[in-house]
């Protein structure tokens, strides 16, 4: 990329981002409570999906246990604010720390294995945490979940919480954006493409991957904390492996090779769910059919398809990746 | 390229947003109510029964001209026995469909989650199946009502009943969630209050929807109790009964559990005679203790619609909808606050018999527990019912009002 | 909070109890083996993790329930024992031809997602055909009742299931090591390219293997139907458990699946009796430990 070219791109990228932000801010003033609540959910899920894509799209790690950090963030926030009287902002800082701590430990173990076994181990860890949360009724509330997570008075209305979640998410996205476009981020991409080569270049790939995993877990924890405040409860199902599938879905749906792909995936996922559910009970059938079609035909997700990148995911070979 | 990506994203967002906003919202004229119940999973048996019972009530109200001259429309949603799904569904029907009242669910865990949303959005929630007392006492609020005996009533009634038996060592087995724990707690407390030397040697909590009870059965056998008290219900109880039979469990241990009409119909010939059953509105007992033409009509309608006999969940759902309908007529409006005022102290025209009303303290109806012994009866060739049935009225065992205030104060701390 | 989890375990340990727990654990192991063996077979030969394996098991159970309902008496059960696995095998063939053939060469994540999509689809198809309620299947009259073992009654049907699983294990072993088809399968695992060069129809072998795997899943469904309730959600539960078994035993290994099943079955049986709250946690902990220390399992080999 030439200097001028990159400057031109840079400008228009931020322009579009600003426009999107304006839309997101004005939007709640025009629609009913119901859509405000829905949008809050979308915003939080976008954060979760983007955090997942840090390791999925950028580092090439297929984790099937990402929901665990989401759930840990939710429970962390819930327990700290409800049982220990933490102020909400304190909880929002502590929850990702809790999630990050777990992510670091789990990541450390997971990075010792590769590919399929990595996925299975991440799944196993997540299930282990799920069972512990589910069974530890005296601490977590067990299968009934954690009811009555408090929300500060200031944020008690639907739209006020929407703006808060939006603000928190935008902040996190900015941080993630900078991480992804930093030397650290570029090293991750290099590791994804060719681990051996990056090792020869002196990159300690295991360490980088653990850090990426921890950061991703931390942001998933923020999403979880926002979610438990939003719903005012936390539930063990948040840690179940089928919940882990959602950010994977969203990343693939929206496109795993762009930064904004997972967010688009989140929007489409929720929109699809709402539109379909009004018309039929068989929403999973539609989701399954869409997913299957997508996986078999358009591996790049919607964004990739629209932007016209070719990615031979199906052929199992790793192609050259132009920067996103 | 980056710009293009963002551009695509933004355009998509706008399109999707517009598409959502354009989705039709539904007509304004009829009064909408919603039933959020369990339609899939182990508890579906009860959820579906509740839905059918409510449908009959809605049909009767509409046949009589509706309420305040408007027809009633009932929206049905599935909570899958999951609190997060239930909460999402009730929020959906309140915010999007703008219902006047919500009925349901089966699971007490879901009830707690739904109750929070109902409170937040100031919408009436009438529980007709799930019954954790905590939803009405510690976490009670202005908008939640119960037409079903809560866990305190039910557990206490059973504690009272079993205290008359000579058994000393008990194992308690129930589904591992709110209802199981809280009702078991109430049972244990009342049992120990009325019988000195009782010992609970083990408590087992298989998850709700468990299909394989083998390890629990062997655990009970290994603990060698005098009797086993269960608050298992529905499909769980059906599976447990069938599996335990294989170990000659019922020959060894007296057993009590929620052998309601749905469970008995589900078991069919696999039922075991001699076990103690308890539940909240068995038609075959009501027929003997408080017969009425209304009940018979209901049974006829229910059988016509489903080919089964109505269980207590259908009866309670009917009672719940009728209670709300009566309150609306009394208040002469659908306005939530006025209907709530009308519901407090309301005398119910319950299928279960006369003398039922909703008390103000915890919005609980004085409905009680029915207890009997499972046995085959000539008049029902396909499924067993009860013999030696008895009814313990709600007001005999429910929590005294003074205690309610105490419990609530404790919860606030 | 609910006084739920203080399960004070007072157990009298005598031989009768221990035998009972072992037999109960073996029954569970039997079902786990039947299901996990299909999963591990498919992975071992096709290198695909079929997430929809649990759904096939569930379909087998529902088909069995319907057959038993329509055909009275024990005859219904025997018919189901044959019909259900065959029906599931046919569905397996359709999946293999329609979906799997396209993703053999793809990354594992693609295979996982595609087969996960199948779970979603099958769940709703089953709900559509059979409804949402749980079904109750009676134990066939031939196996009703209990046998006294070690002074305690144990259900005859459970023994039947255990015996069946052992027979199946022997049968599968003979299939893989004593028949022509088995030889081809083993050769395909070792060196598919050479085999293809020799003119063997590899895609056909792959299809055959997947169909056998599906058959096993369906068989598991029939066997388990009288043991518990048949309902939606049993696919997810068994999938996780079969996964644990296959991973611990070693993906792709039959003896591994057998050993894994026995270990998990016994862990369950004794675990729930001794420490009910922690039984499931221990099982996942075992899976975590195996994946950390020896990812390819007790009997497996490192992935090429």
Uncertain runs of chain A: 1-6, 306-324
Count all strands of chain B and give the number: 12
Can you identify the CATH class of the domain at 152-286 and 369-397 in chain B?
Alpha Beta
Assembly level: heterotrimer
SSE order of chain B, one letter for each helix or strand = HEHEHEHEEHEHEHEHHEHEHHHHEEHH
CATH topology of the domain at 152-286 and 369-397 in chain B: Rossmann fold
Task: Tell me about this structure.
The complex is a heterotrimer of chains A (324), B (413) and C (304). Chain A is built from 14 helices and two strands, in the order H-H-H-H-H-H-E-H-H-H-H-E-H-H-H-H. Chain A is an all-alpha fold. Chain A has a domain of 210 residues. Chain A has a two-stranded antiparallel sheet with strand order 1-2. In chain A, helix 2 crosses helix 11, helix 4 packs antiparallel against helix 10 and helix 11 packs parallel to helix 14. Chain A is globular. In chain A, 56% of the residues are buried. Chain B is α/β, with parallel strands linked by helices and 413 residues long. Chain B has a domain of 164 residues: Rossmann fold (3-Layer(aba) Sandwich). In chain B, the strands form two sheets. In chain B, strands 7-6-8-9-10-11-12 form a seven-stranded mixed sheet, with helices on both faces. In chain B, strand 3, helix 4 and strand 4 form a beta-alpha-beta unit. With 304 residues, chain C is mostly helical. Chain C has one domain. In chain C, 72% of the residues lie in helices and 4% in strands. Chain C has eleven helices and four strands. Chain C has a two-stranded antiparallel ribbon with strand order 1-4. In chain C, strands 2-3 form a two-stranded antiparallel ribbon. In chain C, a hairpin with a 2-residue loop joins strand 2 and strand 3. The radius of gyration of chain C is 20 Å and the shape is globular. The relative contact order of chain C is 0.19. At the B-C interface, helix 2, helix 6, strand 7, helix 7 and helix 8 of B face helix 1, strand 3, helix 5, strand 4 and helix 10 of C.
């Amino acid at each position: 990329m030439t200097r001028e070219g990159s400057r031109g791109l840079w400008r228009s990228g931020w322009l579009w981002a600003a426009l999107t932000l304006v839309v997101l801010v004005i939007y709640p003033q025009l629609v009913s409570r119901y859509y405000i609540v829905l949008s809050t959910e979308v915003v939080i899920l976008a954060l979760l999906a983007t955090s997942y894509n840090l390791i999925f799209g950028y580092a090439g790690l297929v984790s099937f246990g990402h929901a665990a950090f989401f759930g840990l963030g939710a429970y962390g926030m819930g327990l700290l604010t409800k049982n220990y009287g933490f102020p909400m902002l304190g909880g929002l800082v502590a929850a990702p720390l809790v999630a990050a701590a777990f992510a670091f430990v789990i990541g450390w173990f997971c990075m010792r294995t590769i590919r399929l076994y990595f996925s299975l181990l991440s799944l196993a860890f997540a299930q282990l945490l799920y069972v512990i949360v589910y069974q530890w009724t005296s601490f977590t509330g067990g299968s009934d979940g954690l009811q009555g997570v408090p929300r500060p008075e200031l944020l008690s209305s639907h739209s006020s919480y929407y703006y808060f979640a939006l603000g928190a998410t935008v902040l996190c996205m900015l941080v993630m954006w900078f991480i992804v476009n930093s030397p650290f981020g570029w090293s991750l991409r290099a590791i994804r493409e060719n681990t051996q080569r990056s090792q020869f270049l002196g990159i300690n790939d295991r360490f980088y991957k653990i850090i990426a995993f921890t950061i991703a877990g931390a942001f998933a924890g923020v999403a979880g904390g926002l979610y438990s405040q939003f719903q005012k409860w936390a539930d063990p199902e948040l840690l179940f492996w089928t919940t882990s599938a959602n950010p994977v879905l969203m990343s693939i749906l929206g496109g795993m090779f762009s930064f904004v792909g997972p967010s688009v995936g989140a929007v489409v996922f929720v929109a699809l769910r709402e539109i379909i559910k009004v018309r039929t009970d068989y929403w999973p059938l539609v989701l399954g059919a869409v997913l299957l079609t997508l996986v078999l035909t358009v591996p790049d997700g919607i964004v990739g398809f629209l932007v016209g990148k070719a990615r031979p995911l199906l052929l199992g070979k790793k192609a050259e990746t132009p920067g996103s | 390229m980056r710009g293009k990506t963002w551009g695509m994203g933004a355009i998509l967002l706008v399109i999707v947003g517009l598409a959502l906003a354009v989705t039709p919202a539904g007509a304004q004229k009829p009064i909408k109510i919603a039933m959020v119940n369990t339609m899939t999973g182990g508890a579906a048996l009860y959820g579906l029964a509740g839905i059918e019972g409510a449908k009959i009530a809605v049909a009767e109200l509409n046949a009589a001209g509706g309420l305040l001259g408007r027809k009633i429309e009932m929206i049905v949603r599935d909570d899958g026995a999951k609190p997060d799904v239930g909460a999402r569904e009730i929020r959906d029907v309140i915010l999007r469909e703008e219902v006047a009242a919500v009925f349901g669910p089966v699971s007490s865990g879901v009830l707690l989650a739904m109750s929070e949303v109902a409170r937040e959005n100031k919408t009436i929630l009438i529980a007709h199946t799930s019954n954790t007392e905590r939803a009405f006492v510690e976490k009670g609020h202005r908008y939640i009502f119960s037409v079903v005996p809560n866990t305190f009533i039910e557990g206490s009634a059973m504690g009272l009943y079993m205290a008359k038996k000579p058994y000393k060592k008990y194992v308690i087995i129930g589904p591992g969630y709110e209802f199981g724990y809280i009702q078991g707690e109430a049972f244990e407390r009342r049992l120990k209050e009325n019988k000195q030397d009782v010992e609970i040697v083990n408590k087992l909590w298989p998850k709700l929807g468990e299909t394989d009870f083998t390890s629990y059965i062997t655990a009970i056998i290994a603990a060698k109790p005098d009797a086993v008290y269960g608050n298992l219900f529905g499909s769980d109880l059906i599976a447990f009964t069938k599996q335990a039979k294989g170990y000659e469990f019922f020959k060894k241990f007296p057993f009590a559990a929620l052998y309601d009409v749905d469970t008995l119909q589900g078991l069919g010939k696999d039922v075991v005679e001699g076990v103690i059953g308890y539940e909240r509105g068995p038609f075959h007992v009501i027929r003997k203790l408080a017969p009425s033409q209304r009940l018979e009509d209901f049974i006829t309608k229910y059988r016509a619609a489903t080919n089964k006999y109505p269980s207590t969940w259908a009866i309670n759902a009917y009672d719940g909808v009728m209670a709300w309908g009566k309150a609306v007529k009394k208040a002469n409006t659908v306005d939530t606050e006025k209907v709530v005022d009308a519901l407090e102290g309301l005398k119910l025209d319950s299928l279960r018999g006369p003398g039922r009303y909703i008390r103000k303290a915890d919005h609980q109806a004085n409905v009680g527990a029915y207890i009997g012994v499972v046995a085959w009866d000539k008049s029902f060739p396909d499924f067993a019912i009860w013999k030696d049935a008895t009814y313990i009225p709600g007001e005999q065992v429910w929590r005294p009002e003074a205690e309610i205030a105490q419990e609530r104060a404790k919860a606030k701390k | 909070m609910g006084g739920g989890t203080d399960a004070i375990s007072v157990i009298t340990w005598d031989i009768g109890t221990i035998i009972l727990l072992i037999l109960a654990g073996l029954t569970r192991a039997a079902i786990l083996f039947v299901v996990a063996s299909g999963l591990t077979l498919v992975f071992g030969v096709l290198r695909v993790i079929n997430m929809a394996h649990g759904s096939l098991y569930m379909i087998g159970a529902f088909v069995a329930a319907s057959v038993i309902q329509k055909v009275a008496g024990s005859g219904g059960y025997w018919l189901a024992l044959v019909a259900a696995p065959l029906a599931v095998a046919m569905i397996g063939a359709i999946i293999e031809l329609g979906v799997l053939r396209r993703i053999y060469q793809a990354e594992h994540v693609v295979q996982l997602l595609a087969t996960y999509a199948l779970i979603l689809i099958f769940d709703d198809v089953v709900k559509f055909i059979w409804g949402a309620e749980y079904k109750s299947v009676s134990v066939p009259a031939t196996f009703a009742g209990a046998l006294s073992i070690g002074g305690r009654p144990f259900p005859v049907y459970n023994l039947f299931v255990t015996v069946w699983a052992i027979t199946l294990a022997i049968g599968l072993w003979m299939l893989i090591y004593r028949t022509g088809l088995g030889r081809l399968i083993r050769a395909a695992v070792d060196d598919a390219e050479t085999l293809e060069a020799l003119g063997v129809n590899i895609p056909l072998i792959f299809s055959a293997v997947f169909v056998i795997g599906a058959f096993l899943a369906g068989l598991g469904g029939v066997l388990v139907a009288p043991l518990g309730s048949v309902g939606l959600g049993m696919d997810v539960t068994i999938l996780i458990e079969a996964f644990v078994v296959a991973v611990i035993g070693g993906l792709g290994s039959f003896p591994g699946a057998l050993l894994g099943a026995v270990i998990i079955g016994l862990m369950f049986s004794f675990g729930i009796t001794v420490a009910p709250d922690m039984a499931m946690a221990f099982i996942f902990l075992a899976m975590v430990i195996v994946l950390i220390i020896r990812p390819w399992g007790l009997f497996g080999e490192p992935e090429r």
